[in-house]
Design a protein that fits this description.
Length: about 290
């Protein structure tokens, strides 16, 4: 009788690939993309959806490893559609990520920022609106065009001035509600509809006007100037962050920094003061920052 011998198992050694310069760059690029994706969904409802997708994929891997035929067959009908589900569920987040990548100036390319024209007229209007506690929302366009949001309102294409802004935001008038979009020295449109931020970490005391100011800056590189109707406080939103309780000089400084203009000296502030009061908005002391 010939003895039966158990076949010898020769495990295949696992060899790590050589890590060269290309591999290092590949890892860094993937890590950067993953980091950007996590930053976009951080603190939003999309983060919970992403966790659910990861759990489903983990169930599929466990069913394949454990040999659970029924569970694996069920998940096989679902997993192939995850790509389409991600595009549908994360369309706003994907759009926001592409906008963030597009507004970055890689290696100094893209040219310098253009300074905002007629800023003194905007500051004078904001000053008076804050004193009278008239709600207002002014959007200052930078590099990313706001044509989609301009078309949602009433086109004006008028030269911007303090009197024009004060007339638009007078309570009871048709153009009072909504936002005014400013392109350089022109008021492009009024009564524009803006996307509201869905950040759950924001204070519940923030109203629709402030949430719209934050929401538009999450998708574009514009700056939002808000005047509270209840308190008259001046706030500024940019890149998904809101700074509250600003004075007019602080607002001027933020606008200049946002548009890449050199910080004005004391002589510039005094020159602006000669054309109108620079008193702080009621209740405005220290800028309180609300981060996304």
């Amino acid at each position: 009788m010939v003895g039966w011998a158990m076949p010898k198992f020769n495990p295949v050694p696992f060899a790590l690939p050589n890590l060269d310069l290309t591999g290092i760059i590949d890892i860094l690029v993937v890590a950067f993309l993953v980091y950007q994706a996590l930053m976009v969904v951080r603190g939003t409802r999309a983060g919970h959806i992403l966790v659910g997708i990861v759990i489903m994929m983990a169930f599929y891997g466990a069913a394949w490893w454990a040999g659970m035929v029924a569970l694996r067959s069920l998940l096989q009908f679902i997993v192939p559609y995850l790509g389409l589900a991600i595009i549908v569920l994360f369309q706003s987040e994907i759009r926001r990520t592409l906008a963030r990548l597009g507004r970055k100036r890689w290696l100094g390319l893209g040219g310098a920022f253009q300074p905002l024209e007629s800023v003194s007229e905007i500051l004078l209007a904001v000053e008076q609106l804050a004193q009278q506690k008239i709600g207002a929302l002014i959007i200052l366009e930078r590099d990313i065009g706001l044509r989609t949001f301009i078309e949602s309102g009433v086109r004006l294409e008028a030269h911007i001035s303090r009197d024009l802004l004060l007339s638009i935001f007078q309570p009871g008038l048709p153009l009072h509600d909504g936002a005014v979009i400013v392109q350089k020295d022109r008021c492009a449109a009024a009564a524009c509809f803006l996307p509201l931020t869905t950040n759950p970490t924001l204070s519940s005391q923030l109203g629709t006007r402030h949430r719209a100011a934050i929401g538009i800056t999450e998708e574009t590189d514009c700056m939002s100037v808000v005047v509270s109707e209840e308190t008259g406080r001046i706030s500024v939103a940019s890149f998904g962050e809101l700074a509250q309780g600003l004075s007019i000089p602080e607002l001027l400084d933020r606008i200049n920094r946002h548009f890449g203009v050199e910080r004005p000296g004391q002589s510039h502030v005094e020159e602006f003061a000669a054309s109108g009061p620079l008193s702080a908005a009621p209740g405005a002391e220290t800028g309180e920052k609300v981060k996304q």
